[in-house]
Amino acid sequence: xxLRLMLLAATASFATTGAAFxxxxxxxxxxxxxxxxxxxxxxxxxxxxxxYSDPYxxxxxxxxxxxxxxxxxxxxxxAMNEAGNITWDLVDAEGPDAVxxxxxxxxxxxxxDEILAEAPDGTPASEDFGESLISPCFIPQIVFSTTFGYRTxxxxxxxxxxxxxxxxxxxxxFPGKRALEKRPKKNLEWALICDGVAKADLYDVMETDExxxxxxxxxxxxxxxxxxxxxxxxTPQLLADGEIVMGSTYNGRLFSVIAxxxxxxxxxxxxxVFDFDGWIIPTGLPEDRLNRVKHFLHFATDTQRxxxxxxxxxxxxxxxxxxxxxxxxxxxGIEMGPHMPTDPDNMKxxxxxxxxxxxxxQDDVDAKFQAWLAR
Length: 375
Known about the structure:
Blueprint: H1 2-13, E1 34-38, H2 42-60, E2 63-67, H3 73-83, E3 90-94, H4 95-103, H5 112-115, H6 125-129, E4 139-151, E5 178-181, H7 187-193, H8 202-206, H9 209-220, E6 226-229, H10 234-241, E7 246-250, H11 251-260, E8 265-280, H12 287-300, H13 303-309, E9 316-317, E10 350-352, H14 355-374
Parallel strand pairs: 1-2, 1-3, 5-6, 5-7, 8-10
Antiparallel strand pairs: 3-8, 4-7, 4-8, 4-9
Helix pairs in contact: 2-13, 4-14, 7-9, 10-11
């Protein structure tokens, strides 16, 4: 309920655009000249570069190296830690991955009020971010959702249009290849919803072997029609190329292919899955690299910068004070509110990702899912 209220509050404020705020950037002492940032590539990473990296680099001369390995962040940070060679400075991570990395000691605990800027009215960062502070190691950026896009010009559909999540499983009415992420998260929830499990019971059912088997059995019904993706940019490209007729990905990636690329693609919001995304700092960084990371985060997570990112991609900023500053797309001039996952018209059916459940069970469920994929 708290998350729902926060999302609705953020949505209401998208309707107005306030004056830009400028936070004073303190000097950076004993800071490295270069920073390696791990993100997700595609339109999302481009929004970070435009809103955060480029202006920071212009102000400080810092060189940025981007690595697009966020989907593999847990496994790679485990390997780096074991080898005693941490080559990443800052990692963009989804909520459950951030919690796991924190629990395993691979992400550094942070005092957000110490390293992040206050809101323009003096509200401490911890209050401004509120419920999005899901872990002592997590520095929030956005509220996003994973949902489906579909092509609007499929001749074999005879004029029909997908209107519900479960149309994904209807290969007779909607023939053609689908794209799903090559991980169990979200796929299992969707499969169970479309196999008759109530939303309120999802994670209780998934806590049993029988529940996981039930979800995989439902996914079996479309397995031969699925192209599995690992990078968030895959589904938009597959849709644009006509290699699939529908597929899951992050809502901002679909916004890009629809609004920016003007492809014949539409959004299916039914049972979108809400999640938080943000930064984690790997443990064990040398002092100069850690100082640079903290300095960059002070800039990149302030009220104006989070609002600036939302001008390039349709994700809601995690700071309450940022929402009133978001209005039109910086380049297209269109209002961003209706394209946000938090718009009331897009929230008729939704799931909030159970971060605690996935942080506890993901390794075991991943192993079972990958074994199923290989069959």
